[in-house]
Write a structure and sequence with these properties.
The complex is a heterotrimer of chains A (298), B (259) and C (313).
Chain A: H1 2-32, H2 39-59, H3 66-89, H4 99-121, H5 130-135, E1 137-140, E2 143-146, H6 147-169, H7 171-181, H8 183-188, H9 193-215, H10 227-240, H11 245-265, H12 270-284
Antiparallel strand pairs in A: 1-2
Helix pairs in contact in A: 1-6, 1-9, 1-10, 1-11, 2-3, 2-4, 2-9, 3-9, 6-7, 10-11, 10-12, 11-12
Chain B: E1 8-17, E2 20-30, E3 35-40, H1 46-53, E4 61-66, E5 69-70, H2 76-82, E6 84-86, H3 99-110, H4 124-136, H5 152-164, E7 170-174, H6 182-198, E8 202-206, H7 210-216, E9 219-224, E10 227-232, H8 234-239, H9 241-248
Parallel strand pairs in B: 3-8, 3-9, 6-7, 7-8
Antiparallel strand pairs in B: 1-2, 1-4, 4-5, 9-10
Chain C: H1 5-23, H2 26-49, H3 59-76, H4 81-103, H5 108-128, E1 138-139, H6 154-176, H7 178-188, H8 190-196, H9 200-226, E2 228-229, H10 231-234, H11 237-250, H12 257-275, H13 280-294, H14 298-307
Antiparallel strand pairs in C: 1-2
The chains are: A mainly alpha (298), B alpha/beta (259), C mainly alpha (313).
Chain lengths: 298, 259, 313
């Protein structure tokens, strides 16, 4: 029973932050048809920024609760700055080019941003535990869990609801879905697709950064942070289908729980399992579980 | 083969896409050497018919017999190899290649069975034939131009030329003059039908322009909502009230539609 | 075939390398060995790239080739270079043929992702299996040549040069054939190719198997040159990424390009590590971006410009 609760909660926690990261990635993928590898950098930069400033402000004597504000601000600022930098500085010159080449370009950007982290933040680890310590722990079914970890589930639920509401109940959501469905037609309808791209990319970047920032207090932030998560988010996005938030949700839960289960019971196959699932889904549903509709060709 | 024995027999073809009926009990016999015009309003099922005959779509029911062989279940490449080719409503050509390379590619595929595929593509027998084809369809002037720079009319001729190099017995043309300017339409069809008649190819072409239909065909087949509503000579077809209503759109109270 | 200018250059290069190899210092020969070995894999990726397909998981076949050599050595005591090479090609090609049935129906990012997934499944298996070396891998004994056991690595170097040259010539022959030329047509308009009478899936399947054979050979050569195999440097997605990077760096313009690009990469890696060890990723990333944005034809396009002709191959 203990093991089960641990696995489920671990799984949900992991799924939660995987979802926050994947949501941004899948929207970018759906709207812009780009699988953005440097999403991992947004994640890492969000984590480093949050960890760094939490440490600084804590030293200056600010209350620990302020750490949450820093997390939020880090997400916003990193998302905005890096998002704009990458989109305006690189991607906008590449929209006419081959899909896979764009992915490679984002991979190049990712490599660059990774080393810039080293230059800016150094190679030593950051551990900004304050917000986590603040929320203390609680007992569930005889097991002690950090409240902070549970709050992650709450945060990602909020993100999911906001995404759902935004996509299905607002005009902006309609515009996004139109562009996901048919870009040329959207342009013909007078939609400012450039602006949509910018906002989407920056929004996605913020979500990526939020994932990193929020998880930072729970771990030691070191170089190479987040590479595992990004590979898993690729799996989530590919499994869930391009541009599908429900797909990202289901994918995150699936992968998160699966990973929690294998880490606890069969640690040997942890790596193997996620990719095996991705391979299986791709074989049977080549475009993912919730694929965008396809146009008639001839 | 007996002159009146059908080369193509379509029986009981059915196809639906959800609630949309694209083909309903479609029956057609085609005799060698015929030139048939297929007419009908948009969405009536004409292109779907061509797609099914050429294997791009599989019918829900029915059979398509060509020279005694059942075509249902064949993929487009098998249908082409069997002897039926088609052209496309929106020209499907290789836009990054030159006109010459387009025809060469088509010829190379048609003339390289099995391991011949490993032979060089630039070989004398193909190259000679290539120039012949370009001359036949009067696109020699554009030989080395990249296709993406060319007009619709030339692209259409190229599209058709590529379909013909495999020496098919039946050729299906999907709106060969759509997107082509009024002045060029007749020139294009003169070239195409002229070349095809010379080779005794049986032709079925989808067309919205009734003048073109009247001029080149001996038989008109009209589609409406997946059914064939008329299968007569051009004169009879144009006078047929069903055709007038459902294809040409002449109704006492309606505005002009179709075409 | 020998009239083809590219093939002439390839064999001239091979002879030049073999002769020079006798005189150059060991460390230079090592660089060239690794460079030319990897070039085979890049050649394979180039064949796929010209069809519009990029595999993010070719380290799978690289690893299969390398591990085939290692396992033959460890468990069967096979040390003959030719047998090892043949085994690597058969294994990699065989698996590639099987995987090809599935992969040939995928395009763009999905092809890339499925390739990645398959390669990581192998990685996972290797890392967790003791009998397959786990994370440590295996040491590979020095190769012999029909019984002859050489002193240094010169014999292996010659083998690599010869295999490289014949592979390049073979690919050149293939690219000029009808099937090879279909590559561009497929990339342009698949539906039309199907309608003209040829199976696109089959064409892609053939190209895929060719690329896996070449990559398996590359893995085998590297294993023999390096004297060891391990999953992290050979099978991990980072290894696949590296292969893709070198492919882009080389450019798709000629079968000679991979050899030049791979050597450039080898030099880059050696000197970058010496001069700026913490900025390796920055250099690779920056180079990748520069090539994609400003020099899409890769290093080869520079060579063409330098020679003034802009060779068409």
């Amino acid at each position: 029973m203990d093991a089960l609760i641990t696995i489920v909660l671990d799984g949900l926690q992991y799924s939660s932050y995987l979802f926050i990261v994947s949501a941004g990635l899948t929207i970018t993928f759906g709207v812009m048809k780009i699988l953005n590898v440097c999403h991992s950098s947004f994640f890492a930069w969000g984590a480093y920024t949050a960890a760094f400033f939490i440490g600084q402000f804590s030293e200056m004597g600010w209350p620990d609760a302020f750490g949450f504000v820093i997390i939020g601000l880090s997400a916003i600022v990193v998302g905005l700055v890096l998002g704009l930098l990458v989109e305006r500085g690189l991607l906008r010159y590449m929209y006419e080019r081959d899909e896979v080449l764009i992915v490679l370009a984002t991979f190049g950007a990712f490599l660059v941003l990774e080393d810039v982290i080293l230059l800016v933040f150094g190679v030593n680890p950051y551990f900004a535990y304050q917000p986590m310590a603040l929320l203390d722990s609680v007992e569930i079914g005889g097991i002690t869990r950090d409240v902070y970890g549970l709050s992650l589930i709450l945060v990602s639920s909020i993100v999911a609801v906001v995404c759902w509401y935004g996509l299905n109940r607002t005009k902006w959501g309609d515009i996004l879905k139109a562009v996901i469905n048919d870009r040329e037609m959207s342009v013909a309808m007078g939609i400012n697709v450039t602006m949509v791209y910018i906002v989407t990319f920056v929004g996605g970047a913020m979500l990526g950064a939020l994932g990193g920032a929020y998880i930072a207090p729970t771990v030691s932030v070191t170089p190479g942070f987040g590479i595992d998560v990004i590979v898993l988010s690729f799996a989530v996005v590919v499994i869930g289908g391009m541009g599908s938030i429900p797909g990202a949700l289901i994918g995150s839960v699936l992968i998160g729980l699966l990973r929690a289960f294998t880490v606890h019971e069969f640690p040997q196959i942890e790596l193997f399992v996620v990719f095996a699932v991705m391979a299986i889904v791709l074989v049977f549903r080549p475009e993912g579980l919730f694929a965008p509709p396809k146009q008639r060709k001839i | 083969m007996n002159a009146t024995h059908p080369i193509l027999t379509v029986k009981g073809l059915e196809k639906s896409f959800g609630a949309v009926t694209a083909a309903s009990d479609v029956n057609l016999d085609v005799v060698p050497g015929e030139i048939i015009g297929i007419i009908g309003a948009n969405g009536a099922g004409k292109t779907t018919f061509v797609n099914m005959v050429t294997g791009y779509l599989q019918p829900d029911a029915g059979s398509i017999q060509f020279e005694g062989r059942e075509l249902v279940g064949f993929a487009p490449r098998d249908v082409t190899q069997a002897g039926i080719s088609r052209s496309f409503q929106v020209s499907q050509v290789f836009s990054t290649l030159s006109v010459y390379e387009n025809v060469l590619t088509a010829l190379a595929i048609a003339r390289s069975p099995g391991l011949d595929m490993l032979k060089p593509m630039l070989r004398p027998d193909l190259e000679a034939r290539c120039d012949e084809v370009l001359a036949r369809y009067q696109i020699t002037d554009y030989r080395d131009h990249t296709v993406s720079t060319l007009s619709q009319g030339v692209r259409k001729l190229l599209d058709i030329a590529m379909a013909v190099v495999s020496e098919p017995r039946i050729l299906l043309l999907d709106e060969p003059t759509s997107g082509v300017s009024v002045e060029e339409k007749f020139d294009l069809m003169d070239i195409v039908i002229g070349a095809l008649r010379e080779d005794n190819v049986t032709v079925l072409f989808i067309e919205h322009d009734m003048e073109i239909v009247e001029r080149y065909v001996s038989r008109v087949v009209a589609f409406y909502q997946g059914k064939i509503i008329c299968d007569e000579t051009p004169a009879q077809a144009l006078a047929d009230p069903a055709v007038q209503e459902y294809v040409i759109g002449i109704r006492a109270d309606a505005q002009a539609e179709g075409g | 075939m020998l009239k083809d200018r590219t093939v002439q250059v390839v064999f001239a290069g091979m002879l030049a390398s073999i002769v020079l190899g006798y005189f150059i210092p060991d460390w230079v020969m090592n660089q060239l060995m690794f460079g030319f070995s990897r070039a085979l894999a890049v050649l394979g990726l180039m064949v796929l790239w010209r069809t519009g397909l990029v595999s993010f998981g070719h380290a799978f076949y690289y690893g299969l080739g390398a591990y085939a050599v290692a396992l033959l050595d460890i468990y069967l005591g096979v040390s003959d270079a030719f047998v090892r090479l043949a085994a690597a090609v058969v294994v990699a090609g065989g698996v590639g043929w099987l995987a090809g049935f599935i992969l040939r129906n995928y395009r763009d990012i999905f092809f890339a992702m499925l390739s990645l997934a398959l390669s990581m499944v192998l990685y996972g298996i290797l890392v967790k299996t003791e009998a397959l070396g786990s994370t440590d891998g295996f040491a590979v004994s020095v190769p012999t040549f029909f019984g002859y056991k050489p002193e240094g690595k010169y014999a292996l170097f010659v083998l690599i040069c010869v295999v490289g040259a014949f592979s390049a010539a073979g690919v050149q022959f293939y690219l000029n054939s009808t099937l090879g030329k279909l590559t561009t047509a497929i990339r342009d308009n698949e539906v039309r190719v199907e309608y003209l009478g040829y199976s696109v899936a089959q064409a892609i399947h053939v190209k895929y198997v060719i690329s896996t054979c070449l990559t398996g050979a590359a893995g085998a050569m590297t294993a023999m040159a390096l004297g060891q195999v391990d999953p992290d440097s050979m099978v991990n997605w980072t290894a696949s990424g590296e292969l893709v990077f070198v492919t882009i760096l080389s450019g798709p313009g000629s079968v000679i390009a991979p050899f030049i690009g791979s050597t450039v990469f080898e030099l880059l890696r050696t000197y970058a590590f010496e001069l700026v060890p913490h900025a390796w990723q920055l250099i690779v990333g920056g180079t990748l971006l520069t090539i994609i944005l400003f020099l899409p034809g890769g290093v080869w396009s520079l060579v063409e410009r330098f020679m003034g002709t802009g060779k068409k191959t």
